Amino acid sequence: MSMRIHLSVLRRHSLMPALVVLQVALACAILCNVLFLVQQKLAPLLAPSGVATDELILVDRMDSQAQPWTAAEVRRGEQVLREVPGVRDASAAFGLPMVPGALMDMALQGGNGVKIGVNGYLGAGLVKTLGLQLVAGRDFLPDEYHDFGLDGDGSHGWDPVAQQPIIITRALADQLFDDGHALGKLMSDLHDNQGNGHGYRVVGIVRHLLRNQLGLATDGRADNTVLLARRIGSTSILNFAVRVDPSMHDAVLKRVAAAIQREFGARMKEGATARVSFYSERRAQAFQRQRAALWLFAGVTLAVVIVTVIGIMGLTGFWVQKRTRQIGIRRALGARKVDILRYFLVENLLIVGVGIAIGMLLASLGNRLLMRHYELVHLPWTYLPWGALVMVILSQLAVLGPALRASAVPPVVATRSV
Amino acid sequence: MFAYYMDLALRSLKRNPVLTALMVLAIGLGIGASMTMITVLHVMTNDPLPERSTHLYTPHLDPLPLDYSHGGSGIDPSDNLTWPDAMSLLRAHRGVHQAAMAGGTLLALPVQSGLQALYAAGRYTTADFFALFGVPFEYGAGWSAADDTAGARVVVLSDELARKLFGRADVVGRTARLGELDYRVVGVVTRWDPAPQFYADSTGSQFSDIDTFFLPLSVAVNEDLPVSGNESGWGDDEKTGSSKRGAAMSWLQFWVQLDTPAQVADYRQYLINYSAQQKALGRFQRPPTNATLFGLMDWLAHQNLVPNDVHLQLWLALGFLFVCMVNIVALLLAKFLRRSGEISVRRALGARRRDIFVQLGVESALIGVAGGTLGLAIAQLGLWSVRHRPGDYARIAQMDPSMLAGTFVLAVLASVLAGLLPAWRACRVAPALQLKAS
């Protein structure tokens, strides 16, 4: 019965509701897409790093003069760093979280045929130095490490039949092997252009390890990282990971920087200085751009929300004013205040319902259109209800003011100016 | 009559200042956001060398083996040339001017005491570079082709770097120390910074980089100087060598000036012939017709320099503008219909529908002008924030006069458009019915 009244009122005066529908639809479409984009930008920010963040110092930008660093220099560097008071462990590495300077990308294929692009981290003892949590299997054994560097080419010293050991993350194990039981299984590297056909045998699985191509750390790809059993040999790109006693925070940072300068300073390029800083500082820098984008999206969202709310309030306010006499008549005929309030809220819900239905359609259409031109990620439908929910709550709040004003209309209005 | 409508509109807007402010703010925000992003896109798709771009071309060869897989990095090694190919094209001398080049960053040591050492970004290139792109010299000139062959240690500095190293700009004939070598300064160029830096490797930051020195490519190869762009190797290292001279590593950019369509067609054919010849020799494996020639603007389009984020933000901003416009339609409609009584009185006193329409149109245009002014301010604020955002294109986010005028036109157009429907609806109010009802 009451629904019929709603519908007939809306049909008779269709311009106002149509405008509200249009506003809600547009706002809903924009909100769904923005929510999704925010999530895309937030994903790498929220992804667990897997490393002991408070205990990790990273060292990079060590440019050598003329000749690359030799394997002996790298070994000595590790030794000297380990002897610094407050340092628990130190590893030379190629590829470290939050150090984008040295990048190794591989395409792994696991037991179920799925191909996944991953970042590789190389270096002796990285599991311990980074403070990774092994959930299955073991760390590399000391005799499994082989040199990675400019003198010995990568595959030198490998028995062609033997499989190189590899440590992967739990997320990778779940994606590359159907049952998630990756331990002891084989994987192949599709980037291996030399075609020497080495496989990788999974010896360990760590809980998390954030990749260093942060731009790709979205949609559950943050943990696409592997550790390879390579010791850093002669190299022109030298990075160190240093695990320290967190209680000696700044003091140990200074000592590590001093040790690096003492050990490598003489051979570094004129004017070059190594960058020595805690993981947390690197993280803050790396996410600067992401944060800027987030602020922008937050701004857009807020603006769209405010403008829409104002629009709905303005329209409904006018509509209530126009129907003051009808409301008075209803009140005189026995409708309670709460009935009037409910009437306007339900009416708004009806209009907004149509709006969000169109809005969700628009959102996925718009996403598809943008996707075709700009290689965007597909908007998952799960974002649509969230955008819709936000719109419903907002519009109910927007209409509350005018509806309360309507319910305050005294019955006596019905008798006036007749 | 117009002055009277203006007066009426002002009175009406003043009567409800909060609503007026909200409408102006909404249109200002929408216009501001849209214009910020349109400006960013506009400057990013700019022609970096307007006078010369139509005559500049870059050849594209495909020396990759048949079984080469690109992997996940999205970098195409065939976007650059190998040393042997670049030298062949250079020696063939088929264009008006041509030059091979690669970027590099070297530590520059100041000559004058009290100045700081700095990393300088510059270009290793061949003699024709300056004539090819029309680089303006302040002092001296470029080097000769003979210097290229001899591997002469000469350098052309930018005015900026010269001042940083020597404290002054007229330094031709003096010695500059870059990296670990000494170079004789033969020329100083005035500020020359095409944005985007179309001739640089596509993996760099083409909107923010400026070359501060130029030195012969032969020196860079002889001394194995560090290259800052992408160096992609393929094939077996032992057979081909992955050094700079190697035939299986691409790292060079090549540009050529071709003045007539006939020259362009000839050059394209030459590239195909060259590829066929290389294929016959067994060096190339892919079809010779893969070889093409890109014009400057086509090349920029091919490289897809504008990040997806920018496109996306533009669409968001335009969507937002649309939301604001619908909002203005709604608010104006409410406002105009509230005045049905007043309108009916005017109609009853003899005003035509057209008069009412114009009167209300003036009012919405007034809101548009105010909103446009506000939008302009907001757009400047937006561009300012883009300039202070970490990003490659931050530097170039500036509004030129045509964009300024465009902003204003867009604002007025948007709000007049938004005012049309409410004005039309309001002028159709039936005066008799309305007057009777009140």
Automatic annotation (TrEMBL), chain B:
Extent of the signal sequence: none
MacB-like periplasmic core domain span: 20-271
Domain ABC3 transporter permease C-terminal span(s) in chain numbering: 317-429
A cellular-component GO term for this protein: plasma membrane
Annotated transmembrane regions: 21-44, 314-337, 357-383, 403-424
Subcellular localization, as worded in the UniProt entry: Cell membrane
Protein name, per record: ABC transporter permease
Annotated organism of origin: Rhodanobacter fulvus Jip2
